[in-house]
Specification:
The complex is a heterodimer of chains A (203) and B (809). Chain A is α+β, with helices and mostly antiparallel strands. Chain A contains seven helices and six strands, in the order ββαββααααββαα. Chain A has helices spanning 42-62, 79-88, 92-122, 128-142, 147-158, 171-189, 192-202; strands at 9-11, 18-20, 66-70, 73-77, 160-161, 165-169. The radius of gyration of chain A is 22 Å and the shape is elongated. The chains are: A alpha+beta (203), B alpha+beta (809).
Chain lengths: 203, 809
């Protein structure tokens, strides 16, 4: 399999036009987008976003994501605490959904992106097709990771019955949102073409 | 990381790249160089910034996390770590971070994280308490915590006190938040009553609260701390009196039952009311922390006019020699009826010097009630000492004769024996005492009883009994039994006499009487002047010699009398004869004096002419009083009075006797001119009589009659009391009947007599006080009126109680 780079060409990532390699760093003659044979510092950027995502993920799990006030008594819930409470009250399905959306998926994203970066950085890992598949899944699933934030937002909007009962978002909600955003940026910053380049090395 | 990419570049080598060197080897260094230029992307600043930011936030959080404070409580009910807030005026100032125990597990320790800006207020004035729903008589509080859960409230007194980090939490919220405008005062009471939280009422409006209640250190009183809210604290002054408004008051008085109720809250937990009395000290406003007495009732508070509720006290002791039964602790100490203190203790102790048990009475005196302005004890003792030297003594006095309650009286007794105050005495300065007025009274009563005891009552009774016996005998006599009849006659005569007198007095001719009586009076005056002249006569000096002669004659007579008395039968008569003899002697002396004087012949002649004048005047009077009844009036009066006298009613006898005397004197006046001749004749006759042997016979007979009378009296006595009594009663009954009969006519008669006497007296009163005859007449008539009044009384008494003639009234 020959890459565009090997053919001395650069494909515009915006419109797909092929330009000669000489215009690397210049502008696409068709759409005016910047032309890059490979995104510079793609791995570093992705790794940095990933680190930020991880950093945000810590308080998102330690801080309460939701404050429930019932008859004047406030109760704070962390993400895992909420899962536990749901499971404790018998809502296994809900607990499973929340756990998947808020814990399993973000953790999986961290792991997958980390694994891809590690593989690219040290020339190890899966063969290029599997890498590409993993990358696509991560990008796809990223937008669904905000499930927990959505739940909190909806509950906070719905349950406002004055002093009887009210739900307010906790500080972890913001942190969790940031964490998701950072991981998405991380996945986006990773130039998928590098996945194939790495495959070439091993191939 | 990106090194992988350049490492793959040689294989993907583009000949048209900017790098002129075609071989892979040549391109590699270029890429490596560029990579070396910028080996690390700027993107790494983002995570670094995030780390820095997180670090900064953590540092700031650490910086602003505030101070840790530990508060211990009995229980932590409703408190949750990390949840329970600490508030001040409902603004959050901290959070309970941890709930634990104190080291000994005796109480709960709450670890609070306070906001840093609160730190200056965490000092010794800071208080913490838990706000919970609280329902009391005073109201419901902390209701909001039912929903919100308990929270801790904190309050502080001032900023920048001595720093403190460990506190003891209050079990109950302070009743008055710190900084509330108002005044805090102390109330002292003998016993508790108003509980903590009890309202303080002014005209039944709550203006404050009792905050604390505790016994004083010595346990003799209860001290309460109370807070009066502004602006009511301005109403307090030194003249303010507090009393226990127990909520319900029932008064039973002369005007019925009065019930009075304060507010419901004060009914449940008591209350304190106050008012300011109109005293001079009302102008001295109260100060923070002033102490007041809490009186048991409004009445007691209002009666404390003379007290300064914040006054000082001194203690005195006194030893009373008498029994202190009835004296109680709390009994008042009074000075001239003003309460100046009270008894605080009564105890006994051995006096080592006298080996006697002393009853020691301790009392407390409030000097300002004695009018001493803010004195120190030394001054007070000095003043008291001076007063004691002037006779001030403590003595017991009776507060109530019914209950026998005693109180101590500070009395000024000028005649008290000298004593001084002992300021060094143990345990308190000793004030000397005086016997109580009660004791003096008892002593006087005992003295009177002793006097009565020493009276010869038995003898008196005996004498009285003898007197009664005599009266009985007298009444039993026939003469007395005949009295009523005679009395009736006498009364008839008296009536007739009164009629005559009335007629006489009504006679216009009597109008001339005063002038004539005046003339008589003038004559009498002249006589007395002449008599005076006579006594000054030089011939009068020869009188003694003649008196001697008369004495010789009298001696002879007495010798004869002695011969007569030598006879044994005569022994019973000597008293009477002696009296007659002495009278006769006197008369004789007078007569002799008259007769022996050389001017006697002339005198007698003049006397004769005077006598003739008087006789003429008398004749004129007689002619004037043409009614013979008037002439017989004195005699009849005498007879009447004699009979009344014979009734042996003391009063009457006295009156009658005085009347008789007056009558006799009148008669004597009427018959003055005849006396000398009569006296001489009588003397001669007496002498002749005494010389006659027949007289002896008479004397003998008289003694025999006396003996008979004695035997008769003895017989009468022997007849027995009952018989006598019966006879006496029978007589009295008969007499009573007669008196009844007479009584029917009596009132009219007596009225007439009274009227006549009054008229006569009125008329005679006009004659002028100087004339002796006039005076005599007035006296006579007055006696007559008195006699008739007595008679009326007697009649009345006899009519109602016939036997009173025996037993008296």
């Amino acid at each position: 399999m020959t890459t565009a780079r090997e053919a001395g060409l650069i494909a515009c990532l915006s419109c797909g036009a092929l330009e000669p390699m000489a215009s690397d760093g210049g502008l696409c003659s068709r759409c005016g987008g910047r032309l890059r044979s490979r995104r510079p510092y793609s791995l570093q950027r992705s790794a940095a976003w990933l680190a930020l995502g991880l950093m945000a993920y810590v308080p998102a799990n330690l801080w309460p994501i939701m404050r429930t006030t019932t008859l004047g008594r406030g109760e704070d819930n962390t993400i895992l605490g909420g899962v536990w409470v749901l499971a404790h009250h018998g809502s296994w399905d809900l607990a499973a959904v929340v756990f998947l959306a808020s814990v399993a998926v973000p953790m999986a994203k961290f792991c997958v992106v980390g694994l891809l970066l590690w593989g690219l950085a040290f020339g190890r890992g899966f063969e290029p097709h599997k890498r590409h598949r993993l990358h696509e899944i991560v990008e796809y699933i990223g937008r669904w990771s905000m499930l927990d934030v959505f739940v909190v937002a909806i509950l906070a909007a719905l349950v406002q019955v004055g002093p009887l009962a009210s739900i307010t978002p906790g500080p972890a909600a913001g942190a969790f949102g940031l964490s998701v955003a950072f991981t998405m940026l991380s996945a986006q910053a990773l130039d998928p073409r590098l996945l194939w380049d790495a495959g070439k090395d091993h191939a | 990381m990106t090194e992988r990419t350049p490492s793959s570049e040689p294989s993907a080598r583009n000949p048209s790249s900017s790098d002129p060197a075609p071989p892979v080897e040549t391109t590699r260094p270029r890429i490596r160089e560029t990579r070396l230029d910028r080996r690390i992307s700027l993107i790494w600043l983002a995570p670094l910034g995030a780390v820095a930011m997180a670090g900064f936030l953590a540092w700031r959080d650490y910086q602003s996390r505030g101070v840790m404070v530990t508060v211990s409580f009995e229980t932590a009910s409703g408190v949750e770590a990390g949840q329970t807030r600490v508030k001040h005026r409902d603004v959050e100032v901290g959070l309970v971070e941890r709930v634990g125990f104190t080291e000994d597990l005796r109480s709960v320790a709450l670890h609070l994280r306070m906001k840093p800006e609160i730190e200056p207020y965490l000092n010794e004035t800071t208080q913490f308490w838990i706000v919970r729903p609280r329902i009391s008589a005073a109201g419901i509080s902390g209701l909001e915590t039912v929903l919100s859960g308990a929270f801790l409230e904190m309050d502080w007194g001032r900023r920048d006190g001595e720093d403190k980090r460990a506190f003891a939490g209050l079990a109950d919220p302070p009743l008055t938040p710190t900084g509330t405008p108002g005044m805090r005062i102390l109330l002292r009471a003998g016993e508790g009553g108003a509980g903590v939280g009890a309202p303080i009422l002014f005209r039944r409006i709550p203006v404050g609260r009792v905050e604390t209640q505790a016994l004083t250190a010595d346990g003799t009183a209860v001290e309460m701390q109370a807070f009066i809210n502004a602006p009511h604290h301005l109403r307090l002054s030194r003249a303010t009196r507090f009393w226990n408004a127990s909520g319900f008051e029932l008064q039973l008085g002369a005007d019925g039952i009065k019930a009075r109720m304060e507010s419901l809250a004060s009914l449940l937990e008591g209350g304190v009311a106050f008012d300011t009395l109109p005293l001079p000290s009302a102008s001295q406003s109260a100060r923070e922390g002033d102490s007041y007495i809490l009186y048991a009732s409004e009445q007691a508070a209002r009666e404390s006019m003379f007290e300064d509720a914040t006054g000082s006290e001194i203690r005195l002791a006194a030893i009373f020699d008498e029994s202190v039964r009835g004296l109680t602790v709390g009994a008042p100490v009074e000075y001239r009826g003003v309460r100046v203190g009270e008894v605080t203790a009564i105890s006994a102790r051995l006096n080592p010097s006298t080996q006697r048990i002393d009853i020691l009475t301790t009392m407390v005196i409030q000097p300002n009630r004695l009018g001493l302005e803010d004195p120190d004890p030394t001054t007070t003792f000095h003043i008291l000492g001076a007063a004691v030297e002037n006779g001030l003594r403590a003595r017991l006095a009776s507060g109530s004769l019914l209950t026998g309650a005693l109180f101590v009286e500070l009395a000024e007794i000028p005649e008290a024996p000298l004593a001084a105050m002992d300021p060094e005495a143990d345990p308190y300065p000793m004030i000397p005492t005086a016997p109580s007025s009660l004791q003096a009274l008892t002593e006087a009563a005992a003295e009177i009883m002793a006097t009565i005891n020493s009276l010869p009552l038995a003898e008196t009774v005996e004498t009285a009994r003898g007197a009664i016996q005599d009266v009985r005998d007298l009444i039993a006599s026939e003469g007395v039994q005949g009295v009523p009849g005679q009395l009736a006659q006498t009364l008839a005569s008296a009536q007739a006499a009164a009629d005559g007198a009335a007629r006489l007095l009504a006679d216009p001719r009597l109008a001339g009487l005063p002038t004539r009586l005046d003339a008589i009076g003038a004559n009498a005056e002249r006589i007395s002047e002449r008599v005076a002249a006579l006594t000054e006569d030089p011939g009068f000096a020869a009188l003694p010699g003649r008196l001697d002669a008369i004495g010789a004659n009298a001696e002879r007579v007495s010798a004869d009398l002695a011969a007569l008395t030598a006879s044994p039968e005569f022994a019973a008569l000597p008293g009477r004869i002696g009296a007659v003899a002495s009278q006769a002697e006197q008369v004789a002396a007078n007569v002799a004096a008259f007769t022996a004087s050389p001017g006697f012949a002339g005198l007698s002649g003049r006397l004769d002419s005077i006598g003739a004048d008087v006789a003429r005047a008398a004749a004129n009077v007689a002619g004037l009083t043409s009614d013979p009844a008037l002439l017989s009036l004195p005699r009849r009066l005498e007879a009447t009075l004699a009979k009344i006298e014979a009734l042996a009613i003391e009063d009457m006898i006295f009156t009658a006797r005085s009347a008789l005397d007056e009558a006799r004197r009148l008669l004597a006046d009427l018959g003055t001119q005849q006396i000398p001749a009569r006296a001489a004749a009588t003397l001669d006759s007496a002498r002749a009589l005494l010389a006659e042997p027949a007289f002896r016979q008479t004397a003998h007979e008289a003694s025999a009659a006396l003996a008979e009378a004695r035997t008769l009296i003895n017989e009468l006595r022997a007849a027995g009391t009952s018989q006598n009594l019966n006879a006496a009663l029978a007589s009295v009954q008969g007499a009573g009947r007669s008196i009844d009969a007479a009584a029917a006519a009596l009132p009219a008669t007596l009225a007439q007599i009274t009227a006549a006497a009054a008229r006569a007296e009125n008329m005679l009163g006009d004659f002028g006080p100087g004339a002796p005859g006039n005076y005599e007449l007035i006296l006579t008539l007055r006696e007559l009126r008195a006699a008739s009044g007595k008679l009326y009384e007697l009649m009345d008494t006899l009519q109602r109680q016939p036997n009173s003639i025996i037993f008296g009234k």
